[in-house]
Amino acid sequence: MSQYRTFTAADAVAYAQQFGGLQAPSELVEAQEIGDGNLNLVFKIFDSQGASQIIVKQALPYVRCVGESWPLTLDRARLEAQTLVEHYQHCPEHTVKVVHYDPALAVMVMEDLSSHRIWRGELVKGVYYPQAASQLGEYLARTLFHTSDFYLHPHDKKALVARFINPEMCEITEDLFFNDPYLIHERNNYPAALEQQVAALRDDSCLKLAVAQLKHKFFSSAEALLHGDIHSGSIFVAEGSLKAIDAEFGYVGPIGFDIGTAIGNLLLNYCALPGHFGPRDAASHREQRLKDIQALWLAFAERFITLSRHETRDVALATEGYVEQFLQKVWIDAVGFCGTELIRRSVGLSHVADLDSIEDEATRLACVSHAIELGKFLILIAGQVNSVDEFIARVRQKG
Predict the structure, then answer these.
(1) What one-character DSSP code corresponds to residue 97?
(2) Percentage, residues of the chain above pLDDT 70
(3) What is the pLDDT of residues 329-381, one digit of tens each?
(4) Do 9-111 and 117-397 share a fold?
(5) What's the whole-number mean pLDDT along residues 292-306?
(6) CA dist 127 to 56, 95, 110, 225, 270, Å?
């Protein structure tokens, strides 16, 4: 990694001119750093007319919000690029296109998505994209099926597992999802007024046992090449279009983790809506979130089953009824992982704008408290929730 240097805006422009694949690279004249995450620099590259043309993304060797005291592997840039390239192969409609990547500089050049908006921001504002949830289900079905044992030859699947070993990024997930919220830890970040509620998480032996089971699945279930962090902040939307980005947590893991993370972020928005629209006006938005969750799961399951019936290569996995049985297990996993996403975004290091942007403090506390309790509830009942309709009924039950 001796070639590595942190890019300036001028470096990003020069790099885009060389590797952006544009017809008139000399017209690229300016870069604006737009990264709002914790792990990377993200430059939007503009031409002489002020139009954005392409994106240059560089991994930083540390967690941005913490600093150099929390170092990170630069190999995650390779893993992110290769995950997106693999996913693009199977679902180009809903995956950002990688034009070029350089593992030595930890740099990736991607298509510009200025015509799109980050889904989380649109959800917070109440802007509705009717096809987004089903498109996300389609993306998950096609990418996860085609990187699973249903589709790949066993030799190819094992090679895929080896190629996408991602221990350092997985360790972050393991800590933030399954360890920190259930311990007294300096990384945790929650309102002091909720201390009693958070302490109850640490003291709940049944909850911690269920979380341990989920963590073990995350450790050991090499089912498909996951995005690894598929939340509404890593998804761009436009009318009739959805694109997944930010796959540096990609690795071969349990399919239910990606499904649960996606559903969990829709539920975080569900919990936050009274803080943005008031209790009465939030009701219709909340019903739409629940319909989105239903649409996401049904689109995923229906496409996965269709792909299995036509493209499964393993004779045993093609046995009549097996894919439905497999997806029932995926669903139960997803409900549990969904609960961990709700808790870790409310109690742990990395929060979401859905909750944090609520201006009224008392309302924000109530919404965060709801997310914590809903997450705990879902983790504990995951094995008893047999369908998405029952899931929605249980969510309604918790207010």
Answers:
(1) P
(2) 99
(3) 999 999 999 999 999 999 999 999 999 999 999 999 999 999 999 999 999 99
(4) no
(5) 98
(6) 28, 22, 26, 31, 14
Q: What is the mean pLDDT of the chain?
A: 96
Q: How far apart are CA 306 and CA 252, in angstroms?
A: 22
Nearest Cα residue to 257 out of 324, 173, 187, 325: 173
Burial 132-150 (b: 16+ CB within 10 A, else e): bbbbbbbbbbbbbbbbbbb
| Contact yes or no for 388/332 (Cβ under 8 A) | no
Report residue 83 as tokens. Answer: 């995950």
> Which is nearest to 337 in space by CA: 369, 385, 292?
385
- For domain 9-111, the CATH superfamily is Phosphorylase Kinase; domain 1 (3.30.200.20)
Architecture per CATH, domain 117-397, reads as: Alpha-Beta Complex (3.90)
Length of the chain: 399
First-to-last alpha carbon distance for the chain, in angstroms, is 51
The greatest distance separating any two alpha carbons of the chain, rounded to the nearest whole angstrom, comes to: 62
Ordered by start, the domain boundaries in the chain are: 9-111, 117-397
Pairing of strands 40-47, 251-253: unpaired
Q: What is the mean pLDDT of residues 298-315?
A: 98
pLDDT digits (tens, 9 = 90+) for 40-67: 999 999 999 999 999 999 999 987 767 6
| Cα gap 119→245, rounded to integer Å | 11
